[in-house]
Give the backbone structure.
Amino acid sequence: MATGTNKGTPLVEMRDISIAFGGVQAVDHVTVDLYPGEVVGLLGHNGAGKSTLIKCLSGAYQQDSGEIFVNGEKATINNPRDARGYNIETIYQTLALADNLDAASNLFLGRELTTPFGFVDDSKMEAETRKIMGRLNSNFRKFNVPVSALSGGQRQSVAISRAVYFNARILIMDEPTAALGPQETQMVAELIDELKRQGLGIFLIDHDVHQVKRLCDRASVMKNGQLVGTVNVDDVTEDDLLAMIILGKKPEELAA
Amino acid sequence: MTDAATPSAPAQKKNIFSLLEIDTRLLGMIGAFAVLSIGFDLITDGRFLTPRNIFNLTIQTVSVAIMATGMVFIIVTRHIDLSVGSLLATCSAIMAMTQTVLTPDMLGLGLNHPLTAPIAIVIGLVAGTAIGAFHGWLVGYLTIPAFIVTLGGLLVWRNVAWYLTNGQTIGPLDETFLLFGGINGTLGVTWSWIVGIVATVIAIAALFNARRGKLAHDFPVKPLWAEAMLGTIIAVVILGFVALLNAYEVPTPRLERMFEARGEVMPEGYTAGYGVPYSVLILLVVAVVMTLIARRTRLGRYIFATGGNPDAAELSGINTRLLTVKVFAIMGALCAVSAVVASARLSFHSNDIGTLDELRVIAAAVIGGTALSGGIGTIHGAILGALIMQSLQSGMAMVGVDAPFQNIVVGAVLVFAVLVDIIYRRRTGAA
Ligand SMILES: Nc1ncnc2c1ncn2[C@@H]1O[C@H](COP(=O)(O)OP(=O)(O)OP(=O)(O)O)[C@@H](O)[C@H]1O
Ligand SMILES: [Mg+2]
């Protein structure tokens, strides 16, 4: 465990999580935790098991063994709906948008606003979408076209607004800036800082070590499905992090 | 249609259509339909566009059109249903046996007892829905591809129908039941006008309501004149259709028999139009309900989301397996509705009822703009697709094209329509 300044109950604790696909042990007895107002980076080479680990938290997969605690209480997360019940929102690496629907339909997918007669209230949803977009990406204008007509960055802002709109307490971002230009990347970075100030806990998966050092409080590094270790980013250098990712060794082990 | 227009016309045209927010693909289909109808009318010396032929064309289209609306949902969710024709036959057989054996012999109600038709229809609907749901369960929960499940269904249900009736033609059917077949059950002139006017009022009210909703949120709206023009077009189409069906007059001998049956004598020079058939009314109700489901309900939203990106739908907490069951159950229910219309039109249940309907239904949906890759399709498009297919078939029959050539043309048109669609989508950048 890291020697952090965090006290009290963590927002999320994933204890001893394992999951295998056929013969591949994608996640192997990994334990990570997350406190309110904290950003924890998840690092590791391609195929290390980062996405798989957080998918157990977002309800997309179910772990073979291990337990998840939210606010200190054991949580049962069998599907994405359960995760939403715990105020866990996820921005997936693949964005998970329905390309044929517009921004508002995507933002509210699975949680549509309805009229008193039970019909979906498209005008209301569009109005809400315009509001949140005004805050997150005021350049966004394409409200009435399918999201397939949007750029990577615009699609990203739809995915992010979906997570932010529903008052997430726990936010999972799987490579949120992978498809973005420098300006949009900056925008996402500012958003992460802002959400952190509001007291959200954020798991951030990112390959950019520099960005992780700048945005995260702690970093958990994975290799071949196993946890290499968790460190305070201020206690280590970028090279230390890279060594953890590539060699799978903690700084103290290397120094020793 | 102003095809040969002045150079400035295209820009102008585009402006008007985009202002009216009519999708150009729909317009293309209406154009194709118009060209087809006028072409056949010219070749047949004006026999194609008579009230009589339009009436017949309409009632011939109903059965396939009803199922095509369900096929839209199936194809939008990236499935296919090859069993609809056979399922129609099974539902038809069940309803025919209910009327001719179950209610008279077991419940002691005569063939033309007022309860016979409702009982038969309810049993047919329940059977169709259950069979459809079963298909959906096999596809959604057991993850057998829909192509295989319904290919099996094609064989199974055709022969279940055979087994239920011992391969015999079952008739005559209940009189009330026959009212849903088309010519034997129409609203008459007065009621047709009433229904037409009510439908017009509702449609215009819906337009107005949508506009108010947008204004309430300060969204851009069409200019008022565009809205008025759209309303006028809708009114002209609905009322024009009613006028046409009303213009088809009941033959005098038939009218005389109707008066005779009531113990009256027909007044000299009395005439009456058929008006809107009940079967067409059923299609309209199905069309409105299916459009509402597609556009205004969560179910519809989930159907399209799942078709667009099944993973995203799943990750958004949508139960896509249950959704598959629902979509196939709707398809099954619509097969039962079509079975009522089809067997009532024939006035008996025959062994080969609905044969090849699966191909007509899929073709109608696809010509109507439903993309086989999923996520895209409209209810009105599918109905228009069914109408185009039926016009082509009837028109060629009227012209005297040999049967094999008719089918060759229909097949070629299907492939050509999809090619045009692909080119259109590529040009407009739609996925
Ligand atoms: N649905 C699945 N079925 C089978 N194997 C899977 C599945 N999902 C992931 N895996 C395997 O599990 C391992 C971990 O994959 P995961 O997607 O978690 O990696 P990652 O750390 O997110 O990599 P990246 O940085 O490339 O996104 C890989 O070996 C991958 O092939
Ligand atoms: Mg990943």
Observations:
- Residues 49-182+277-404 of chain B form a domain with the ABC transporter involved in vitamin B12 uptake, BtuC fold (CATH 1.10.3470).
- The CA atoms of residues 26 and 381 of chain B lie 7 Å apart.
- Residues 1-14 of chain B have pLDDT under 50 and may be disordered.
- The pocket of magnesium ion (ligand 2) is lined by residues A 50-51, 93, 174 (CB under 6 Å).
